[in-house]
Amino acid sequence: MDFILLVLNSFTLLLDPFNLTYVILGFVIGTVFAAIPGLTATLAMALLLPVTYALNVETALMASASIYMAGMTGGSITAITINIPGAPSSMMTALDGYPMQQQGKGARALGHAALGSMIGGAVGALLLIAVAPFVAEVSLLVKTTGKFSLLAFAIIVVVIAQRGHIAQAGLAACIGLMLATVGLDAMEPITRFTYGFSNLTAGIDLMPVIIGTFAIAEVLVQAVSSNDIRAATAAAGKVRISRREFLPPLSDIRKIGFGCYIKSCLIGYFVGTLPGAGGSMGSFLAYTEAVRTSSEPETFGKGNPKGIAASESANNAVCGGAMVPMLTFGIPGDPITAIMLGVLIINGIQPGPQLMTDQAALIAPMLATLLFSAAVLIPLTLYLLGPYFIRIVSVRKDVLYAVIALLAVVGSYVATYSTFQMFVALGMGILAFYLRRNGFPVITMLLGYILGPNLEEFLRRSLALSNGDPTTFFTNPDSLFFVLLTLVFIYFLVIRKPSRRAEAAPGL
Questions:
Q1: Are 504 and 297 in contact (CB under 8 A)?
Q2: What would the pLDDT profile of 158-208 be if each residue is shown by its tens digit?
Q3: Bridge partners of 237?
Q4: What is the rounded CA–CA span in Å between residue 208 and residue 441?
Q5: Distance of alpha carbon 137 from alpha carbon 133, whole angstroms
Q6: Residue 123, exposed/middle/buried by CB under 10 A (0-12, 13-18, 19+)?
């Protein structure tokens, strides 16, 4: 209850013009990046990460939360208008959104997407605020061996979640773990794998890794892409620019039903708590559940607003769910929470069981902003700027990516004031580019890099406490729980692959 009151009191920080400006700017930038095919809110977060050095901790976290929520929402804009999802989480939205656009109901479809996003984001944020303190208390029961098994569980689940690319994902995770070993030893005051370079003594900085992996790699990917967006630009130009059209009629909302919104929110939230699941899985499961329980499943894929509502409610509820393991265990649930974890670490905040008690005052404003972004900024932004956001696809790509490349390089230097780390960012960008071109998921590499130091530390401490006996991971109840949980996930995701009942849904 104390934490909930602290979050409520944190809304007063939004009355500060300085904080509110960064929250609004973050939301607009996140929406723009998510709405441009090829860009993501993850890229926006990576580019703006160096800016956090010049802000106080509360403002930096509040801006990050608004970008996160905007990223989940903005992808629906181009998914509906031109059938190109701006974010992977909006793929299911396109199935019914684009047919509505073809029927001349594009603005209404965007309104349904905004309403679903608002409800999903708000419910996810409220569940996060209510549940996070209790999860933090439970996490205090996890000891050293259990922490190692938990981190190993997170990495393994993220790897096996990359269906069709499990081997590549595993190798990418190993690369991340290897990068994490460069520099000072986790337990002893000695250097490792520096090869005589003094610049590597402190290891590879988190900032260049993030900027290189997402920003620079994305520029290289787009540079070799042959996508022609002229047809997409023409399609976007046909959308009616009338703000009244963005308001979904009550008859549609009643037809969708309150139960659909809440069920989709819960699906998205609990999917978000799973490492590596992300908004795309949440929206997929919610969409297929909406089709399964519908009295007219044949209408899905042909412009049924219920499909949009289910998809957007779920993928925005994922925001709240994904922050639970990130805050309480230091395990990011998706790429953007991985960068948010970087914001915390850069500002000297170590996520973990003690975070909700020792530094609750720093976390509460971020959660308040998450709720504010969902309940206020989503509908307000769409109503005011929605008619213009859908024309973003007409932006010249050569100018856009040249600016992004410049910001990425300058940002990596400003963040560290090290020419060496700037070149590290360029090297990471080239590495991530080739990994992506060959089907290697870079998120597993980033997760391996972030979790690597703690994984090594807890492993070595556990073995030291047990005199080198590896059975300690099976004899301690907390560790055994996560070992068994890992085996359950391997069974259902690898051995017994999920049924494809969703294939009955049109367009899947």
A1: yes
A2: 788 776 788 999 999 999 999 999 988 877 888 888 888 888 888 888 778
A3: none
A4: 18
A5: 6
A6: buried
- Is residue 319 within 8 Å of 69, Cβ to Cβ? yes
Structural domain boundaries, residue 200: 2-504
pLDDT at res. 500: 46
The total of other beta-carbon atoms located within 10 Å of residue 354's CB is: 14
Could you report the per-residue pLDDT of 116-153, keeping only the tens digit for each? Answer: 999 998 998 898 888 877 776 777 677 889 889 988 88
Number of domains in the chain: 1
Q: Give 16-19 contacts, CB < 8 A, sequence gap 24+.
A: 18/59, 19/58, 19/59, 19/62, 19/365
- Beta strands (DSSP E) in 152-222 are 183-184, 191-192
- Token digits for 212? 């290189």
Amino acid at 90: S
Interatomic CA distance for residues 508 and 502, integer angstroms: 7
Rounded distance, CA 342 to CA 282, Å? 24
Taking only the tens place, the pLDDT of each residue in 284-324 is: 778 888 888 888 888 888 888 999 999 999 988 888 888 88
Largest CA distance in the chain: 71
Residue type, 282: G
pLDDT over 70 percentage in the chain = 86
How many Å apart are CA 490 and CA 249, to the nearest integer?
A: 45
Question: What is the rounded CA–CA span in Å between residue 279 and residue 88?
Answer: 8
3-class secondary-structure state, position 111: helix
331: amino acid identity, one letter:
I
Return phi, psi of residue 191, to 5°.
-95, 155
Could you write out the DSSP letters of every residue in 482-495? HHHHHHHHHIIIII
What value does the CA radius of gyration of the chain take, rounded to a whole number of Å? Answer: 22
Residue 387: both structure tokens together: 């008619």
Give the closest residue to 349 by CA, choosing from 372, 330, 365, 377.
Answer: 330
Residue written as token pair 């050095």: 53
